Amino acid sequence: MRATRSRPVEQSETGCGSPSFRQPGRRSSFTAVVIIAAYVAGSPLPAQSIVDGSVRTAPQILVYELGSPVARRVTQVAIPMAIVIPIGRGLVVDLGTAWASAEVEGEGTRSRVEGLTDTQLRATYTLGRDAVVLTAGLNLPTGQSTVDSAGIEAAGIIGNDFLAFPISNMGTGFGGTGGLAAARTFGAWSLGAGASMRYSARYEPFEIGGDRVQYEPGNEYRLRIGGDRMLFGGRFAFGLTAAFFGDDAAGGTTYATGDRYIVQAGLARRVGGTDLTISGWNLTRGTGETIAGTAPWENIANLTFVAGMEAGGARIEPSVELRHRYESGSGEPSRDGVLATLGLRAGWRILGVSVSPAVGYTIGGVDATAGERSRLTGWRASVGMRSGR
Question: How far is residue 150's CA from residue 158's CA, in Å, rounded to a whole number?
Fold first, then answer.
């Protein structure tokens, strides 16, 4: 199974909260802007103050066991933290970071990285009732942006989109994002559209034999449209995202990261005393060139079913998640992978704090080399906590 060190990404949601559709792949500070704009399109914003802010964290552990010929055990422990502070009318500032460790154990081998990740500082400002949203974000280099030979495998595998680790990288150096989004109502639809651009400064991702590799990521440009409406007795929502990347530069050579196209959709409705949700996303990444060589064309599709109900004063949500990955490179055999995850989440409030423990068990398999498939099993556990409004 291919594992490469991911390009700079912003973990703006830091693993906290429960968005309806999890954004796969690269995350930017613009991820939620259109959804926010669509939500406020039909109603004026009330005045807010610092006392309306919230603090969030979600300690979690994720373990994957890969059978032969890969023969690896991958473990990640993550403690993301975020502070959200409304300031006056329309302005919201949030600060997020995480402590994380990732370890890959094989037959007589061990690769590990751990420490504080980069810190994301973001501000969003909503203009009036027309739901025009401005966003600006900074990626502050508080994390471990350089790894040595002992940590390369661990740092690379957590950037894998298919396995979707809570923290996809430990640090990428300074970066900045700016975006603009707008939304309004058209009949039964609330529709939004937006654009953003991300700049990342040069940093040194690898240190091998005392030598450091200078790496300068290309700019990222992202376009997104989204909307929602009442449909089939429930609420339907969709999002379309296109992300384009400039050439990366390393060691006097340029590399092309494949552009990404993401489709998201979901329908939620109440049946009897149960809230049913079906949602899905599809990520397509074009062929690119990385420091490690050619990055083949890749497609990942994900489908999730969730049932929510009240029981004993708590919110209970069993779920089933299915994921498929297909990869094909020029002149290379195609590879695929499948995962199925059974999950259970609960939620209640204790002394003004929202607590949401969750567990999941995963089974599946991935193509390691041509004609050879590795069985995969795994489990995860987390406890989300949020204080404030």
Answer: 15
List CB contacts of 210: < 8 A, sequence separation 6 or more.
none
226 vs 6, 236, 276, 300, 310, CA distance in Å?
26, 11, 21, 20, 30
Q: Is the pLDDT of residue 40 over 60?
A: no
Q: Parallel, antiparallel, or unpaired: how do β-strands 132-140 and 220-231 relate?
A: unpaired
**Residues in contact with 118: Cβ distance below 8 Å, sequence separation at least 6, in sequence order:** 11, 97, 139, 140, 141, 142, 143, 145, 170, 171, 172, 173
How many other β-carbons are positioned within 10 Å of the β-carbon of residue 211? 8
Between the CA atoms of 102, 21, 171 and 289, what dihedral angle is there, to the nearest 10 degrees? 100
Maximum distance among all Cα pairs of the chain, rounded to whole angstroms: 64
Angle CA 268–271–275, to nearest 5: 45
In the structure, what pLDDT confidence band is assigned to residue 247 with cuts at 50, 70 and 90? confident
User: CA torsion 214→289→293→338, rounded to 10°?
Assistant: 120
- Give the amino acid at 82: A
Per-residue model confidence (pLDDT) at position 17: 31
Token pair, residue 324, equals 């498929």
For residue 312, give Cα distances in angstroms to 137, 270, 309, 348: 41, 19, 10, 10
**CA–CA dist 325, 335 (Å, integer):** 8
Amino acid at 188: A
pLDDT confidence tier of residue 37, bands split at 50, 70 and 90: very low
* Tokens at 315, concatenated: 């919110």
Please state, in angstroms and as integers, the Cα–Cα distance from residue 77 to each residue in 67, 114, 158, 240, 311, following that order. 21, 9, 11, 31, 30
pLDDT tens per residue across span 111-168? 999 999 999 999 999 987 767 999 999 999 999 888 888 898 999 899 888 998 999 9
Mean pLDDT of 29-54: 49
First vs last C-alpha separation in the chain: 43
